[in-house]
């Protein structure tokens, strides 16, 4: 991982120290200036608990009760993607935020870059209620391998599976990623507009076809669709270009996807299972004729994510850390999680089956948490520059 | 007749802006349409131009009924009050416009434009844009654009209203000269009686949508046909009163205690309400104690206004009645505060019956 | 004719010119400079690296994709702007001529769409053109196949852009016509021009400047349009502005995005200059030169 400071070291050392210093100041000022329009610092108040989080999880009642109890003001800032949150943190955001959310492999990146600090599970009794798959010992994503400390707690989870129209697509076909690249459904498919998931999903498909998915990887680790070889990337580019004429569109939001599925304009699309849930609920109320199902993990492999709560490395005093821990504990209480699940349409990592109806257990995939184990977690692309180029070429083709 | 307006009426909403106007204009005539603002004179001009369609009536130009023709097929040209030169065209291009529309060959076009530039003394300005010209120069270009295409008739809509007095008088003479030179009718709309009197052969006085009179300028001035004309044309003293005695040869009116004698009775009978007008220049002044002629009135000079060759004396009777007398400035006149006798001949009194004002036809 | 640039010594002149200048520097020049600086740096996995290079420009010029986006955008902007002008003219003219006492009301009506956000309008349009929208919803209810060409295509983007920018163009042309002395048309008619000829000779040239401003106010935002292609354009509808926004958004390749922005900025300026190079202001009745 190259940081700003590393690159300064790599710069030519010929120029004298004073000039270098000046250049550095100018560059620093320029960087601040350049970054300024894209970064909104949160105002710091001593009695405030400041969080950088997904908007869907900000449930008013829960937060209000917490504010009341701990006499603090909860000040959330919302983000739209991991990269946005990452950037906010990197440009001094650790001083602006106490609590942070991230998913997939991003927390470990944050920890490596010292953007977040370690956490004490003992101070979060709610962690006892996790589904087996998310128990600290079973879920290695939030544990530092070398020091063994934990730096995050799981919150909600989901996949990027395939929602499909049961009337149009046979179940057998829907179990494979091939469905998304099948000319049989030309013009009746759609995908998300995000470039990471498009490339990663195609990456799984390509690596599967090339047979490289099970072979030893250049980095010595197991296959990760966010770390593709150049050959695989070439294949992804070709595959995505082939896929283009099959797509009606790349949807921007869940509402659009729902409209596309409900109208029958498309028969299948990869998504975060939100629309699947919405449509099932409507079906149950008799508002909908179309039946959809959701393939959580296609047979070639699937993408998954686990949202987490993290504590910013800016939190140094014990008192503040305690409030952070208390907040997280409040958020993962089973009663809270039921509310959040309903509000956000996400599955929870806390076992709330005792509090949920049989329908909800199906709807929120409560008996399918084990399937997440085999999924590839959301991650940062190995080179956003390379991936961007691929994505641009696909769009321009 | 060369131009003939037959029963022209124009209705806007519920109001008749022009009401049954009939006029006949000869080929070499300079005709003015004189009237106050809102009288309908400009509307009448626009009807002739074809910019407005009459609600009733026909317009004939050179024997052809053009009522249904659009303006560009009537062979008319127009000079507008605000000049309305094309701001994006040079003087030469403005002058060329009517000729281009006629598809005139280039050589002939240049000849015509040079001719127009010549008679209007615009040589050397042909490359300028309108906003680089003075008001007088713009006026000349507007006139030139009207004349260059040799129209059948030139319509002028208060073309001198935006010029200062001196320039206006200069232009009056010039416009009259062009008209005589070209031998086409000019129809000139104005609210300024001096302009109308100085240039026109005949003047049509327009009031409330109809023509009060259409007559030679001297007739119009000397023998105004209606009270409106008597008031609007020239400067007059106006009296309102009742006829006390009338016979075939003369008539006596009592106007607020003042007794006026007029020759002729204007069809009035004793007891009728009447207006009497005496032109300012017909009122003579004599020293105190003078008695004579038909009407004489002792007054005091309140003020004297110099008008160059003549002076206006603002007079006041002992009853507080105001009068104006215009006299040529030969020798010493009476000065302010002097007692004088104002007197005039009975033949100089114009009498009209008082009619109810009907306003515009609805 | 133009008496050189002379600024009065009057201190008030400095205030009147100085305040806008400061604003311009703060809100326009500084961001632009920061953009230019950034375009000569590079990014690596969400990090800005300050080593000076021209790679971003090289990538834009040679990678193909970006040039494709640019050409798509140019074609789109030209077509949309021309369409807007063609629609706006009769609308604005009609309001001026027939608007009567409702003229002001109608002209204010053009501004109503500006009261809602652009995002809202685009999403509304996406609904309208989408599979359950007004057109296709009706068609499908009647048992017909939906019109695929208005769903997620460049055609849909064009409709969206016309819809977004038409009010601006109408307003600008309306204002131009409002300042235009309609009696000049009378003059043209009197001097032999029929309605069409009068339009060509007088109305059009004297409103050309306003029309070009309207065209430019449509063209430039079309060139950088982000939302419309995103929501309406479909898989092959990526336009330059949308690709540019991606650099700053999800992919975090800000330096490349900055270079794309600089290219767009230069291109917009060049386009506007080119247009005005061929327009003689005097020929459009522009009188701002004063008399001489």
TrEMBL record, chain A:
<keyword id="KW-0732">Signal</keyword>
<dbReference type="Pfam" id="PF13416">
    <property type="entry name" value="SBP_bac_8"/>
</dbReference>
<dbReference type="InterPro" id="IPR001188">
    <property type="entry name" value="Sperm_putr-bd"/>
</dbReference>
<dbReference type="GO" id="GO:0015846">
    <property type="term" value="P:polyamine transport"/>
</dbReference>
<dbReference type="InterPro" id="IPR006059">
    <property type="entry name" value="SBP"/>
</dbReference>
<keyword id="KW-0574">Periplasm</keyword>
<protein>
    <recommendedName>
        <fullName>Spermidine/putrescine ABC transporter substrate-binding protein</fullName>
    </recommendedName>
</protein>
<dbReference type="GO" id="GO:0042597">
    <property type="term" value="C:periplasmic space"/>
</dbReference>
<dbReference type="GO" id="GO:0019808">
    <property type="term" value="F:polyamine binding"/>
</dbReference>
<keyword id="KW-0813">Transport</keyword>
<dbReference type="InterPro" id="IPR006311">
    <property type="entry name" value="TAT_signal"/>
</dbReference>
<feature type="region of interest" description="Disordered">
    <location>
        <begin position="1"/>
        <end position="20"/>
    </location>
</feature>
UniProtKB/TrEMBL annotation, chain B:
<dbReference type="GO" id="GO:0016887">
    <property type="term" value="F:ATP hydrolysis activity"/>
</dbReference>
<feature type="domain" description="ABC transporter">
    <location>
        <begin position="3"/>
        <end position="233"/>
    </location>
</feature>
<dbReference type="InterPro" id="IPR013611">
    <property type="entry name" value="Transp-assoc_OB_typ2"/>
</dbReference>
<dbReference type="InterPro" id="IPR003593">
    <property type="entry name" value="AAA+_ATPase"/>
</dbReference>
<dbReference type="InterPro" id="IPR050093">
    <property type="entry name" value="ABC_SmlMolc_Importer"/>
</dbReference>
<dbReference type="Pfam" id="PF08402">
    <property type="entry name" value="TOBE_2"/>
</dbReference>
<dbReference type="InterPro" id="IPR008995">
    <property type="entry name" value="Mo/tungstate-bd_C_term_dom"/>
</dbReference>
<dbReference type="GO" id="GO:0022857">
    <property type="term" value="F:transmembrane transporter activity"/>
</dbReference>
<dbReference type="GO" id="GO:0015697">
    <property type="term" value="P:quaternary ammonium group transport"/>
</dbReference>
<dbReference type="Pfam" id="PF00005">
    <property type="entry name" value="ABC_tran"/>
</dbReference>
<protein>
    <submittedName>
        <fullName>ABC transporter ATP-binding protein</fullName>
    </submittedName>
</protein>
<dbReference type="InterPro" id="IPR003439">
    <property type="entry name" value="ABC_transporter-like_ATP-bd"/>
</dbReference>
<dbReference type="GO" id="GO:0043190">
    <property type="term" value="C:ATP-binding cassette (ABC) transporter complex"/>
</dbReference>
<keyword id="KW-0067">ATP-binding</keyword>
<keyword id="KW-0547">Nucleotide-binding</keyword>
Automatic annotation (TrEMBL), chain C:
<dbReference type="InterPro" id="IPR000515">
    <property type="entry name" value="MetI-like"/>
</dbReference>
<feature type="transmembrane region" description="Helical">
    <location>
        <begin position="206"/>
        <end position="232"/>
    </location>
</feature>
<feature type="transmembrane region" description="Helical">
    <location>
        <begin position="252"/>
        <end position="276"/>
    </location>
</feature>
<protein>
    <submittedName>
        <fullName>ABC transporter permease</fullName>
    </submittedName>
</protein>
<keyword id="KW-0472">Membrane</keyword>
<feature type="transmembrane region" description="Helical">
    <location>
        <begin position="104"/>
        <end position="129"/>
    </location>
</feature>
<dbReference type="GO" id="GO:0055085">
    <property type="term" value="P:transmembrane transport"/>
</dbReference>
<dbReference type="GO" id="GO:0005886">
    <property type="term" value="C:plasma membrane"/>
</dbReference>
<dbReference type="InterPro" id="IPR035906">
    <property type="entry name" value="MetI-like_sf"/>
</dbReference>
<keyword id="KW-1133">Transmembrane helix</keyword>
<feature type="domain" description="ABC transmembrane type-1">
    <location>
        <begin position="70"/>
        <end position="275"/>
    </location>
</feature>
<feature type="transmembrane region" description="Helical">
    <location>
        <begin position="61"/>
        <end position="92"/>
    </location>
</feature>
<feature type="transmembrane region" description="Helical">
    <location>
        <begin position="12"/>
        <end position="41"/>
    </location>
</feature>
<keyword id="KW-0813">Transport</keyword>
<keyword id="KW-1003">Cell membrane</keyword>
């Amino acid at each position: 991982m190259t940081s700003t400071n590393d690159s300064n070291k790599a710069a030519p050392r010929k120029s004298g120290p004073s000039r270098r210093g000046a250049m550095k100041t100018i560059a620093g000022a320029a960087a601040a200036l350049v970054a300024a329009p894209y970064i909104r610092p949160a105002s710091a108040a001593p009695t405030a608990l400041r969080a950088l989080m997904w908007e869907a999880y900000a449930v008013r009642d829960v937060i209000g009760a917490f504010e009341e109890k701990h006499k603090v003001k909860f000040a959330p800032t919302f983000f739209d993607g991991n990269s946005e949150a990452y950037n906010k943190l990197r440009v001094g955001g650790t001083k602006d935020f106490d609590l942070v959310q991230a998913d997939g492999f991003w927390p470990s990146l944050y920890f490596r870059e010292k953007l977040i600090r370690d956490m004490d599970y003992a101070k979060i009794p709610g962690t006892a209620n996790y589904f087996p798959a998310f128990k600290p010992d079973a879920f290695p994503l939030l544990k530092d391998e070398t020091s063994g400390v934990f730096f995050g707690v799981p919150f909600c989870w989901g996949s990027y599976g395939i929602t499909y129209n049961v009337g149009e697509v046979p179940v057998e076909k829907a179990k494979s990623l091939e469905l998304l690249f099948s000319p049989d459904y030309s013009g009746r498919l759609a995908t998300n507009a995000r470039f990471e998931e498009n490339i990663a999903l195609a990456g799984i498909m390509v690596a599967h076809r090339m047979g490289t998915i099970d072979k030893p990887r250049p980095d010595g680790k197991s296959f990760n669709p966010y770390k593709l070889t150049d050959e695989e990337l070439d294949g992804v580019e070709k595959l995505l270009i082939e896929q283009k004429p099959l797509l009606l569109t790349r949807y921007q939001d869940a509402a659009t996807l729902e409209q596309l599925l409900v109208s029958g304009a498309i028969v299948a699309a990869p998504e975060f299972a939100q629309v699947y849930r919405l449509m099932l609920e409507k079906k149950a109320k008799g508002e909908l004729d179309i039946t959809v199902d959701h393939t959580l993990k296609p047979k070639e492999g699937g993408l998954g994510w686990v949202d987490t709560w993290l504590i910013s490395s800016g939190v140094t005093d014990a008192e503040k850390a305690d409030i952070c821990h208390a907040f997280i504990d409040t958020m993962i209480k089973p009663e809270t999680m039921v509310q959040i699940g309903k509000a956000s349409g996400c599955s929870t990592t806390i076992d709330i089956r005792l509090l949920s109806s049989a329908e909800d257990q199906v709807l929120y995939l409560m008996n399918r948490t084990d399937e997440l184990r085999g999924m590839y977690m959301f991650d940062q692309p190995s080179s956003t520059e390379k991936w961007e180029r691929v994505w641009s070429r696909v769009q321009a083709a | 007749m060369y131009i003939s307006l037959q029963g022209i009426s124009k209705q806007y909403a519920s109001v008749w802006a022009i009401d049954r106007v009939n006029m006949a204009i000869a080929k070499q005539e300079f005709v003015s349409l004189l009237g106050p603002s809102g009288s309908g004179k400009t509307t009448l001009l626009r009807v002739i131009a074809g910019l407005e369609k009459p609600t009733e009536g026909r317009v004939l130009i050179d024997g052809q009924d053009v009522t249904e023709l659009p303006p560009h097929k009537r062979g008319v040209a127009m000079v507008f009050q605000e000049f309305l030169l094309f701001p994006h065209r040079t003087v030469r291009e403005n002058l060329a416009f009517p000729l281009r529309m006629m598809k005139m060959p280039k050589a002939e076009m240049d000849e015509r434009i040079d001719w127009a530039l010549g008679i209007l003394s615009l040589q050397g300005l042909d490359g300028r844009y309108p906003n680089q010209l003075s008001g007088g120069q713009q006026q000349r270009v507007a006139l030139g654009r009207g004349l260059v295409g040799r129209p059948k008739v030139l319509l002028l809509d208060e073309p001198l209203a935006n010029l200062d007095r001196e320039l206006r008088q200069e232009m009056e003479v010039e416009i009259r000269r062009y008209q005589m030179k070209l031998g086409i009718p000019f129809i000139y709309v104005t609210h300024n009686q001096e302009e109308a009197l100085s240039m026109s052969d005949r003047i049509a006085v327009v009031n409330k949508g109809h023509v009060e009179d259409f007559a030679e300028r001297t007739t119009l001035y000397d023998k105004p046909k209606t009270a409106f004309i008597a008031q609007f044309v020239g400067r007059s003293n106006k009296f309102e009163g009742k006829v006390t005695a009338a016979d075939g040869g003369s008539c006596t009116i009592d106007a607020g205690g003042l007794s006026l004698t007029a020759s002729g009775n204007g069809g009035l009978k004793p007891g009728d309400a009447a207006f009497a007008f005496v032109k300012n220049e017909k009122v003579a002044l004599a020293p105190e104690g003078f008695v004579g002629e038909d009407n004489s009135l002792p007054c005091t000079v309140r003020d004297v206004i110099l008008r160059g060759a003549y002076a206006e004396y603002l007079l006041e009777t002992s009853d507080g009645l105001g009068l104006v007398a215009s006299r040529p400035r030969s020798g010493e006149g009476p000065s302010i505060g002097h007692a004088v006798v104002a007197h005039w001949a009975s033949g100089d009194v114009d009498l009209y019956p008082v009619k109810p004002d009907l306003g515009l036809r609805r | 004719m133009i008496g050189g640039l002379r600024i009065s010594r009057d201190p008030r002149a400095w205030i009147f010119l100085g305040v806008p200048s400061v604003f311009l520097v703060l809100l326009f020049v500084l961001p632009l400079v920061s953009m230019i600086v950034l375009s000569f740096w590079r990014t690596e996995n969400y990090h800005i690296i300050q080593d000076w290079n021209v790679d971003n420009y090289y990538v834009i010029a040679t990678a193909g994709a970006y040039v494709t986006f640019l050409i798509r955008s140019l074609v789109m902007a030209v077509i949309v702007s021309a369409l807007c002008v063609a629609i706006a003219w009769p609308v604005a003219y009609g309001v001026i001529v027939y608007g009567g006492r409702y003229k002001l009301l109608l002209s204010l009506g053009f501004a109503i769409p500006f009261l809602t956000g652009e995002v809202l309008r685009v999403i509304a349009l996406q609904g309208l053109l989408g599979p359950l929208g007004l057109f296709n919803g009706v068609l499908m209810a009647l048992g017909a196949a939906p019109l695929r060409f208005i769903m997620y295509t460049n055609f849909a983007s064009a409709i969206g852009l016309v819809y977004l920018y038409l009010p601006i163009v109408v307003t600008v042309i309306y204002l131009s016509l409002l300042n235009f002395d309609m009696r000049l048309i009378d003059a043209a008619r009197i001097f032999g021009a029929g309605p069409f000829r009068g339009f060509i000779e007088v109305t059009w040239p004297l409103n050309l400047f306003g029309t070009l401003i309207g065209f430019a106010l449509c063209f430039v935002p079309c060139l950088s349009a982000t939302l419309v292609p995103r929501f309406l354009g479909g898989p092959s509808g990526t336009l330059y502005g949308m690709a540019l926004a991606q650099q700053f958004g999800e992919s975090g390749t800000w330096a490349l995005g900055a270079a794309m922005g600089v290219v767009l900025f230069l291109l917009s300026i060049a386009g506007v200059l080119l247009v005005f190079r061929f327009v003689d202001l005097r020929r459009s009745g522009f009188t701002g030169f004063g008399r001489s």
